[in-house]
Write a structure and sequence with these properties.
The protein has ten helices and nine strands. With 255 residues, it is of the alpha/beta class. It binds benzoic acid. The site of benzoic acid (BEZ) has 7 residues, from loops.
Length: 255
């Protein structure tokens, strides 16, 4: 998940409290990867290594990379081979049977083609790329609430602060094909997701690039205002919050 792009900051302890569900909901993309004993697999955006560890348990040799040193340190504490590396400048050549990524590539907004060509370069001939990321329309309501609240507070061009890349299946397929992949499957999957620590927990973890456009003493109030905008749409009568997630899940192979 880690990326050095925009102003997102990663804190492994905060992530574990507010966002453990991200790895917990990774079963479908794990199944799509279908790791085999003895395979060499790259986990791109490994975060604190919760899913990396599961791939290792399947008998694969896994290298995890993440742009956040805090996340990489958390992954190393699990005994994993984790390295600090930016998704846009992957430094591997024809050495992996598969590349895996969960909930990370939407943070790599600046140059998606550089990310994809680094993955292609990292794979052996015939290697596979199994991934899930936010897709077109993901957290749309949350994004609108954050931008509208910033606009009310006089921040110019809040849309320019959106740190996420949420492509359609068509757009992403075209990028994969251009980079030399054959796309076996790709689909946008709406997945309303319950938030264990509510909208404030989610915003505290993921909306940092928006909050940082304001002076520190205004950030808490800003996040409360955005939360209240979202309450009628995303909080149920029992006080449970749901985020409007849409996933893009795909399997591609080196042509
Ligand atoms: C995710 O972790 O899947 C995610 C993070 C921020 C925005 C949307 C999705």
């Amino acid at each position: 998940m880690g990326s050095t792009e925009f102003a997102q900051e990663w804190n492994a302890a905060r992530y574990a409290t507010n966002a453990r569900f991200v790895a917990d909901m990774g079963q479908a993309v794990f199944d799509l990867l279908n790791p085999q004993p003895g395979e060499r697999i790259l986990d791109l955006g490994c975060g604190d290594g919760a899913l990396t560890e599961r791939i290792v348990s399947a008998g694969a040799h896994v290298v995890g990379v993440d742009a956040s040193s805090d996340m990489v340190n958390a992954a190393r504490r699990r005994g994993l081979d984790a390295r600090v590396m930016d998704g846009g400048s992957l430094d591997f050549n024809s050495e992996f049977d598969a590349v895996f990524s969960n909930a990370a590539m939407h943070w790599m907004k600046r140059d998606p083609d550089a990310v994809i060509s680094g993955i292609h370069r990292a794979l052996k001939p015939g290697g596979r790329f199994a991934a899930e990321m936010g897709g077109h329309g993901c957290v749309a309501a949350i994004t609108v609430a954050l931008c509208a609240t910033l606009q009310e507070r006089g921040v110019p061009n809040p849309a320019g602060l959106i740190p996420w890349y949420f492509p359609t299946a068509d757009e992403y397929s075209a990028r994969l094909e251009r980079a030399g992949f054959y796309v076996e499957s790709i689909a946008l999957i709406p997945r309303p997701t319950q938030l264990p620590t509510g909208m404030r927990g989610w915003l505290d973890t993921f909306a940092i690039p928006f909050a940082k456009s304001l002076p520190e003493n205004e950030r808490d109030e800003f996040l409360n205002e955005a939360t209240e905008k979202l309450r009628p749409a995303l909080c149920d009568a029992q006080g449970r919050w749901t985020a409007d997630y849409v996933r893009l899940r795909f399997l591609a192979k080196v042509r």
